[in-house]
Specification:
This protein is mostly helical. 65% of the residues lie in helices and 6% in strands. It has a six-stranded mixed sheet. Helix 1 runs antiparallel to helix 6, helix 1 runs parallel beside helix 8 and helix 18 packs antiparallel against helix 19. It is globular.
C-alpha cells in the first residue's frame, strides 16, 4: 500500500510566503524596468516645465520671438536651472495650472537637483513613491480587517496591478495621490480606534498632504466624514468632534492653495480634461473596460470607446475578460457587505460612492467625459481592489470547497496582471501616454533627415515632449499654441512662420488646419506620418 503524504501547515504557509516574495520582486521590477523606453508625452513635458520654474507663456513668448532655434534650446524649459528657483516652480503652477498643487512638483525639483534631469531619474521618483503604496495598503487593510491574509493579498494585487505600474512610471503626481489616499484612510481608522490626539494629528497631516497632491482629495475627506458620522449614529460624539477638528486643520493647511484655485477657477474650467460628450452606453462600456484595467491591460486603445471589432476573436476575449472582472468586482462588494462587519463594508462603500458617483452622474446628466479618465476614479478603484483582496483571502483560508474557487480566481488575476506587466515593460507606448507613440515615430523620421528644419504651430506641450527624442542639430521654426496661457503673447501673432528658408530639409509637424492650408497653396506636402509632412518644391 502506498503511503499518502500530506503538506504540513508550516510548509503550506512557506509556499505562500515564497509566492508573495515573488510578487513583491515583480512589483519592484515592473516599476523600474525600462523607465526610459516610453517617450515623454505632453503632461510629462508640462511636469518638466513646472519643475524648471518657467511658465508656458514665457516659453511660447521666447520661442516665437526667435526666427529659428536649435532643439537643445528647449532643454532649459525641461530641467532645473540656476535662473529659476523653487518659488518660480510654485508660481508657475499657481499662474497657469492651479489644479495641480505643488507638493509633488517640489519633490520632483529636489529629486532632479539631486539625481539629474534624465528621463530615468525624473520618472524614478514616481516609481519610488509608488512602492510606498504597498505598506500603506497593508496598514489600511489591517485596520479594516485585522487580517494579515487580506492585507498581503491587497499588497500583491496592488503590487502587480497594471494601473499602479503605469502611473508608477509617469512623471506626474498620481502615484503620490494613491499613497496619500491610502495613508489618510488608514490614519483615520487608527484614530477612530485609539481616539488619541496624536493619531488625529497624523490624520490631519495625511489629509493635508493628499490635498496638496490632488484637489480631488476633498471628496476622499468627505467620504471619511460620511463614514464616521454614519458609524457614530449621526450624533455629535467625541470622535465626530475630533474628526471635524482634524479635518478643519487639514483644510486650513490647504487653504492658501485653495484660494489660488478659487481665484483661477474660470481659467481652470477651460483647460481641465474631460470636456465634450459621449453616448451613455459608450461611457458605461468605457467604465467597465477601465475597471478591468486594474487587473488586466493589453493596451487596446480603441476598445476603450467601442471595444474594437478588428479581430472578432480578440473582441470576444476582451469582452469576456471585462465581463468576468466586472462581475468579480460586483460579487466582491456583495461578499464584503454580506460577511464583513458594518464598520468595514461601510468604509469601502463610502469611499466608492462619495468619490466616484458624483463624477459619473455629472457626466451622464450634464455631459462631460471626466469619468472615463481612470485616474479621476482612483479612490474607487483602490476600494474595489481591496474588496477583491478580502474575497480572495476569505476563500483561500476557508476549509470549504470554495477554497479551490478562490485559488483559481487568484491565479487568473495574478496571471493577467503579470502578463500585462510584461507587456508594459516591453512596450514603447501605452494608452496613458497620449501622442507618445506618434512622437516616437515622428522623431525617427525627423532624425533620419540630413538638415532638418521643423515648422510647427502645434501644442507647446507636444513640441516639448518631442524635443526629448530629437537629435541636437534639428532646427525649429515655431509659432506654438499655448494650452495653459490666459492669452497669447504678441510675438505669436507677429511671427511669419510660413516663410520657408533655403538650405534645409523642411518638415511640417502637427500643424493647425489654417497653417496646413496656407503651406499647401505654395508648396507640395508629402505625408510621412499622421502629423508629419515633408515640404517639397513649389507647385
Amino acid at each position: 500500500m502506498k503511503k499518502i503524504s500530506f503538506i504540513s501547515g508550516q510548509e503550506y504557509l512557506s509556499y505562500w510566503k515564497i509566492l508573495f516574495v515573488i510578487i513583491f520582486a515583480l512589483s519592484v521590477t515592473f516599476r523600474f524596468i525600462n523607465l526610459d523606453q516610453k517617450p515623454y508625452w505632453d503632461d510629462e513635458a508640462f511636469t518638466g516645465l513646472r519643475v524648471s520654474g518657467y511658465t508656458e507663456y514665457e516659453v511660447v513668448k521666447n520661442v516665437s520671438e526667435l526666427e529659428r532655434i536649435p532643439v537643445r534650446y528647449l532643454a532649459q524649459y525641461q530641467t532645473t536651472n540656476p535662473d529659476k528657483n523653487l518659488n518660480d516652480t510654485i508660481t508657475s503652477l499657481a499662474l497657469e495650472e492651479a489644479q495641480h498643487p505643488p507638493l509633488y512638483y517640489v519633490m520632483a525639483r529636489w529629486s532632479m537637483q539631486l539625481f539629474g534631469n534624465s528621463m530615468v531619474s525624473t520618472r524614478a521618483l514616481a516609481a519610488v513613491i509608488s512602492l510606498l503604496a504597498l505598506p500603506s495598503v497593508y496598514w489600511l487593510c489591517m485596520e479594516l480587517f485585522a487580517s494579515a491574509w487580506t492585507a498581503w493579498m491587497a499588497v500583491a494585487l496592488l503590487g502587480i496591478s497594471p494601473f499602479q505600474i503605469l502611473y508608477a512610471q509617469e512623471a506626474r503626481e498620481y502615484s503620490l495621490w494613491i499613497v496619500t489616499i491610502l495613508l489618510s484612510s488608514a490614519a483615520l481608522l487608527q484614530a477612530m480606534r485609539t481616539d488619541k490626539k496624536i493619531d488625529w494629528g497624523i490624520y490631519a497631516v495625511t489629509l493635508a498632504m493628499s490635498l496638496y497632491t490632488f484637489p480631488a482629495s476633498i471628496t476622499v475627506g468627505a467620504a471619511h466624514g460620511v463614514y464616521l458620522i454614519t458609524i457614530e449614529g449621526l450624533r455629535l460624539t467625541k470622535k465626530v468632534i475630533a474628526y471635524l477638528l482634524a479635518s478643519l486643520a487639514g483644510f486650513l493647511a490647504f487653504l492658501p492653495w485653495l484660494l489660488v484655485i478659487v481665484a483661477n477657477l474660470k481659467h481652470l474650467t477651460s483647460i481641465v480634461g474631460g470636456q465634450g460628450n459621449m453616448p451613455t452606453l459608450s461611457m458605461m462600456k468605457t467604465w467597465a473596460f477601465n475597471l478591468s484595467r486594474m487587473f488586466i491591460d493589453s493596451n487596446h486603445e480603441r476598445a476603450v470607446i467601442n471595444f474594437g471589432v478588428e479581430n472578432q476573436l480578440t473582441h470576444l476575449i476582451q469582452i469576456s475578460l471585462v465581463a468576468v472582472i466586472v462581475f468579480l468586482a460586483g460579487y466582491s462588494i456583495y461578499y464584503l457587505c454580506r460577511y464583513s462587519s458594518q464598520k468595514t463594508w461601510l468604509f469601502i462603500l463610502s469611499l466608492i460612492l462619495v468619490t466616484c458617483l458624483p463624477i459619473m452622474l455629472k457626466d451622464v446628466i450634464y455631459g462631460g467625459t471626466r469619468s472615463i479618465i481612470p485616474r479621476y476614479l482612483t479612490p474607487g478603484y483602490l476600494s474595489i481592489q481591496i474588496s477583491i483582496a478580502y474575497l480572495l483571502a476569505s476563500k483561500i483560508t476557508s476549509i470549504s470547497p470554495q477554497q479551490k474557487f478562490g485559488k483559481i480566481i487568484m491565479c487568473f488575476l495574478f496571471s493577467g496582471s503579470i502578463f500585462s506587466g510584461v507587456l508594459i515593460s516591453q512596450s514603447h507606448h501605452w494608452w496613458t501616454k497620449s501622442h507618445s507613440d506618434l512622437n516616437f515615430q515622428d522623431a525617427k523620421l525627423i532624425n533620419q533627415v540630413e538638415r532638418p528644419l521643423l515648422i510647427s504651430d502645434g501644442s507647446m506641450g507636444r513640441i516639448l515632449a518631442l524635443s526629448h527624442l530629437l537629435k541636437p542639430e534639428v532646427q525649429l521654426q515655431l509659432q506654438p499654441n499655448c494650452y495653459t496661457c490666459r492669452e497669447l503673447p504678441p510675438s505669436v501673432f507677429n511671427k511669419d512662420i510660413v516663410k520657408v528658408p533655403d538650405g534645409f530639409d523642411i518638415l511640417l509637424f502637427a500643424p493647425s488646419v489654417e497653417l496646413k492650408n496656407t503651406i499647401e497653396r505654395n508648396y507640395q506636402l508629402q505625408p510621412l506620418n499622421f502629423a508629419l509632412w515633408r515640404i517639397k518644391l513649389a507647385k
